[in-house]
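Researcher: Quick test of sequence recovery. Tokens follow.
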């Protein structure tokens, strides 16, 4: 969930599942499992969202839960919607020492690093009128520390750095049955290069959709989806990396498959 301010504002009420597999030619390659939901609460002019995930890379794993609440301010014309949201999140970092190579089993730094927990919070603002949507969000505002102990006499601590994310998209109706949504995103993280993304999605009759995205100097994304039942959609995406990892080995892309269940009949996909 990028922006807690957007929780429930689309009035879709949905639950989704997804699985992502990166760089499959590498042993212990990264994989991610996700389940998420988004719900509108009309009587409170608000919405809630939830996101549960598990990342696995070699012997390390990260499990996280994010809960968001957004208060909606509705314009008099019935189209303008403004959401102010907050989020809380919990993270568990773990190391499965049985998967470590023999040379690392006695490493003192890893002696007390089996399971570590952290909690943090974020906030966001989101505006939409059905055509244009704008968002700004900040996550990991507390910048929680993760203490991995001091087996060597020196404190070893990780830190959750703040993320600032800005998004924009515009819905272009090209006919009775087709619309296109150009979109963009900027992500800023302390001590890291800024990330820029551009893309576009096309939807036909809310039954078939496809799109193209580009994260500058990192990868291209191709995606497509189809509504397989009245309230169920299936999506697949593939990332083509531009970084050196793509030069040195085959199987260096990323596959993601998702399944979405709409709780309201006739909910739009985007």
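Model:
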């Amino acid at each position: 969930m990028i922006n807690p301010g957007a929780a429930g504002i689309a009035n879709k009420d949905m639950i989704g599942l997804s699985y992502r597999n990166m760089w499959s030619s590498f042993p212990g390659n990264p994989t991610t499992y996700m389940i998420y939901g988004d719900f509108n609460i009309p009587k409170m002019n608000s919405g809630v969202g939830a996101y549960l995930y598990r990342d696995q890379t070699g012997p390390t794993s990260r499990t996280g839960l994010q809960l968001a609440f957004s208060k909606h301010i509705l314009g008099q014309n019935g189209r303008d919607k403004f959401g102010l949201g907050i989020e809380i999140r919990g993270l568990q970092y773990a190391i499965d020492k049985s998967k470590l190579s023999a040379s690392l089993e006695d490493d003192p730094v890893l002696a007390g690093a089996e399971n570590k927990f952290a909690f943090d919070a974020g906030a966001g603002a989101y505006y939409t009128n059905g055509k244009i949507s704008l968002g700004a969000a900040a996550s990991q505002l507390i910048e929680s520390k993760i203490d991995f102990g001091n087996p060597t006499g020196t404190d070893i601590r990780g830190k959750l750095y703040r993320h600032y994310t800005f998004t924009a998209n515009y819905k272009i109706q090209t006919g009775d049955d087709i619309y296109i949504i150009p979109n963009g995103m900027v992500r800023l993280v302390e001590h890291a290069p800024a990330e820029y993304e551009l893309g576009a999605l096309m939807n036909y009759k809310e039954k078939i959709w496809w799109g193209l995205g580009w994260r500058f100097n990192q990868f291209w994304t191709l995606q497509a989806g189809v509504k397989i039942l009245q309230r169920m959609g299936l999506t697949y995406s593939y990332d083509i990396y531009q970084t050196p990892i793509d030069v040195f080995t085959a199987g260096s892309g990323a596959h993601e498959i998702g399944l979405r269940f709409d709780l309201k009949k006739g909910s739009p996909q985007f």
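The longest strand covers residues 60-74.
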